[in-house]
């Protein structure tokens, strides 16, 4: 058990450090994030001036929603990416064979890799837009100090849920020569359904209710709401429980899918 | 002790190809076809054959990432596909065209990962790392990001990564591909040491010199079947291998006549003379130097593809 924890920590730390070697890409990414956030914030402010209280957020909460969701965007890979890109190139080059003979669980390897990446990107690509937004436009920061650790936990679960979705999409690489189309499609769906473009409370009633029950809601909407302290007491645990539930379900599905996929490769040849 | 045992192992792949607009034809490729051999602990075996012969497929089955379609396979007493993870801790694999190292990080980090992956005890890790650093001359490279290493340096790094956990068997799939003469020599020197220390080595290569310098035994596979199993001299005899003497004369002239050799090509003042590989070049060189205006000469070793082609032609032709 201790050995396994040590192994996965080493993998995650490796991924964290690998991403930190791309300084220029990280810097320009953080700038892009911030610029994007500022444009969105200006739009949201105009919208909320016309319709105060829209979707249950006041104007200040609405712009904060933008800082937080932009801070999460890359870290939770709301439109795909992260380990998914790496895995895709490994399918194409055949390096996937190397991954398969390592004495480590394939799914665990990539989850640890993605968590390491997400950790780095939350720090840099998350911290910068959040700071820029809060200083320039102001933000509704958490009142209770307990909210910060809860938010981090929620962000962690968001990455795991997002990993679950992306892992299932990636597995198609075992069957399809070109998984790019499926990936783009799920990326767009994820942008909408996660609440990345608009809070899900702004969706028409029926569609909104459906979207709030789907796993994507756990990726952006929920951590934002935790940050904004929209629920109190045990209700917060309900939100985290919702994320944890989807994380487990998707991880389990990924496991089944992986078994089928490796069986196919190992037994039939890819 | 038999470390590797194959008993009539076959592996087929189903390939779909387009036949017309909508129809797709399925057909079977027999990558490995009824292969049987054994390798004893401590041997160093060259595993050669032309492109597409089934070498990499065999190695993939030996690591457990590919299941045989038929036949029985054992490595260190276990069925690789069934006990892939347990076996992985006892074998080392190097694919010349791929890397197990973390591209963006210093070599040291990948070794640290190997320590965790293979659960190597600290003392053993320290000792093995020291040995690899010394033998592979990795000292200056440990703190260099892998993407900044040259091909030869990276290959040495990969060899180190495959050996930190003291594997019983080392599979090498073209470890010298793309390396210059000096790097090849270093890799061979290292492999010789590894084998001398008791590790069983199965080496796939297209370079006969690798085999010559490392392997007491060579197996040739073609179309998934074993067509030769013996020592290198036996291979040359079976393939009626020929070496080539390239002779530069002072001026163009008629084909050279020398006992035991025949001219296979003439281009201006340069002539190519073929002679049996097991025969010494000295008497031929002496005869040529004696009777012709010799300026320069060199000897070329046979290439695997020619040896196999001739061996095959010999078998078919009678
Ligand atoms: N996954 C696969 N699907 C379909 N056919 C395959 C697959 N892997 C290998 N083959 C086929 O099996 C045969 C043997 O391939 P293999 O890679 O084992 O050859 P090799 O001896 O390693 O050749 P090389 O010297 O070129 O590396 C080839 O005809 C190849 O096309
Ligand atoms: Mg090969």
Q: In angstroms, what is the radius of gyration of chain A?
A: 19 Å
Which topology of the largest domain in chain B does CATH recognise? Rossmann fold
Decide which structural class fits the backbone of chain A: mainly alpha
The largest sheet of chain A, given as strand count, sense and whether it forms a barrel, is: none
What structural category arises from helix and sheet content of chain B? alpha/beta
How far apart are the termini of chain B? 37 Å
Greatest chain-chain contact: A-B, 25 and 32 residues
> So how many helices of chain A?
11
| SSE ordering of chain A | HHHHHHHHHHH
Total helices of chain B: the number is 10
Shape of chain B: globular
Number of DSSP E strands of chain A: 0
Order of helices and strands of chain B: EEEHEHEHHHEHEHEEHEEEHEH
Percent in helix of chain B:
25-40%
CATH architecture of the largest domain in chain B: 3-Layer(aba) Sandwich
Low-confidence stretches of chain A: none
The distinct bound ligands, ions and cofactors come out as:
adenosine-5'-triphosphate, magnesium ion
Strand % of chain B is 25-35%
Provide the gyration radius of chain B in Å: 23 Å
Domain ABC transporter (chain B): 4-248
GO cellular component, one term (chain B): plasma membrane
InterPro entries (chain B): AAA+_ATPase (IPR003593), ABC_transporter-like_ATP-bd (IPR003439), ABC_transporter_ATP-binding (IPR050763), P-loop_NTPase (IPR027417)
Membrane topology (chain B): Peripheral membrane protein
Q: What's the structural blueprint in terms of helices and strands?
A:
The complex is a heterodimer of chains A (270) and B (318).
Chain A: H1 2-20, H2 23-50, H3 59-73, H4 83-93, H5 96-101, H6 106-136, H7 147-171, H8 180-193, H9 205-213, H10 221-227, H11 234-268
Helix pairs in contact in A: 1-6, 2-3, 2-6, 3-6, 4-7, 6-7, 7-10, 7-11
Chain B: E1 2-18, E2 24-40, E3 44-48, H1 55-63, E4 70-75, H2 84-88, E5 91-95, H3 107-117, H4 122-136, H5 151-163, E6 169-173, H6 181-196, E7 200-204, H7 208-214, E8 217-222, E9 225-230, H8 232-238, E10 242-249, E11 262-267, E12 270-276, H9 282-291, E13 294-300, H10 304-317
Helix pairs in contact in B: 3-5, 4-5
The structure holds adenosine-5'-triphosphate and magnesium ion (MG).
């Amino acid at each position: 058990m201790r050995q396994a924890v040590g192994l996965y920590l080493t993998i995650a730390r490796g991924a964290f450090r690998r991403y930190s070697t791309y300084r220029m890409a990280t810097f320009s990414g953080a700038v892009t994030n911030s610029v994007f956030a500022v444009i969105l914030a200006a739009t949201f402010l105009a919208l909320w001036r016309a319709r105060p209280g829209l979707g249950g957020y006041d104007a200040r909460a609405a712009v904060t929603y933008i800082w937080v969701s932009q801070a999460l965007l890359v870290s939770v890979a709301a439109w795909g990416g992260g380990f998914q890109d790496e895995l895709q190139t490994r399918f194409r080059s055949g390096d996937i064979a190397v991954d398969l003979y390592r004495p480590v669980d394939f799914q665990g390897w990539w989850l640890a890799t993605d968590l390491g990446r997400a950790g780095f990107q939350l720090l840099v690509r998350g911290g910068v837009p959040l700071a820029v937004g809060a200083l320039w436009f102001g933000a509704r920061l958490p009142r209770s100090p307990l909210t910060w650790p809860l938010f981090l936990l929620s962000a962690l679960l968001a990455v795991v849920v997002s990993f679950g979705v992306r892992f299932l999409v990636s597995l198609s690489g075992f069957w399809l020569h070109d998984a790019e189309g499926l990936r783009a499609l799920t990326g767009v769906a994820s942008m909408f359904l996660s609440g990345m473009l608009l809070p899900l409370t702004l969706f028409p009633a029926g569609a909104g209710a459906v979207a709030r029950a789907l796993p994507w809601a756990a990726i952006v909407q929920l951590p934002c709401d935790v940050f904004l302290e929209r629920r109190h007491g045990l209700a917060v645990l309900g939100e985290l429980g919702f994320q944890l539930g989807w994380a487990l379900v998707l991880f389990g599905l990924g496991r089944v899918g992986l078994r089928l996929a490796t069986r196919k490769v190992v037994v039939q040849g890819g | 002790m038999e470390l590797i045992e194959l008993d009539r192992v076959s592996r087929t792949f189903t390939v779909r190809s387009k036949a017309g607009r909508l129809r797709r034809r399925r057909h079977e490729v027999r990558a490995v076809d009824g292969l049987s051999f054994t390798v004893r602990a401590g041997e160093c075996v060259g595993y050669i054959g032309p492109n597409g012969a089934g070498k990499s497929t065999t190695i993939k089955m030996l690591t457990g990432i590919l299941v045989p379609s038929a036949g029985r396979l054992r490595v260190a007493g276990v069925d690789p596909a069934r006990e892939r993870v347990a076996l992985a801790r006892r074998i080392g694999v190097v694919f010349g065209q791929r890397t197990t190292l973390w591209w963006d990080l210093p070599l040291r980090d990948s070794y640290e990962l190997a320590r965790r992956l293979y659960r190597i005890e600290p003392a053993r890790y320290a000792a093995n790392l020291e040995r690899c650093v010394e033998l592979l001359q990795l000292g200056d490279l440990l703190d260099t990001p892998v993407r900044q290493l040259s091909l030869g340096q990276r290959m040495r790094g990969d060899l180190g990564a495959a050996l930190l956990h003291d594997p019983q068997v080392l599979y090498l799939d073209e470890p010298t591909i793309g390396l210059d003469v000096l790097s090849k020599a270093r890799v061979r020197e290292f492999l010789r040491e590894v084998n001398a220390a008791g590790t069983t080595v199965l080496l796939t290569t297209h370079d006969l010199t690798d085999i010559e310098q490392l392997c007491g035994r060579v197996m040739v596979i073609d179309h998934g079947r074993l067509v030769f199993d013996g020592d290198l001299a036996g291979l040359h005899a079976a393939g009626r291998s020929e070496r080539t003497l390239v002779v530069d004369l002072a001026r163009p002239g008629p084909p050279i006549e020398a006992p035991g050799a025949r001219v296979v090509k003439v281009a201006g003042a340069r002539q190519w003379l073929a002679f049996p590989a097991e025969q010494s070049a000295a008497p031929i060189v002496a005869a040529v130097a004696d009777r012709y205006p010799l300026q320069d000469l060199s000897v070329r070793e046979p290439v695997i593809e020619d040896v196999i082609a001739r061996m095959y032609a010999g078998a078919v032709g009678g």
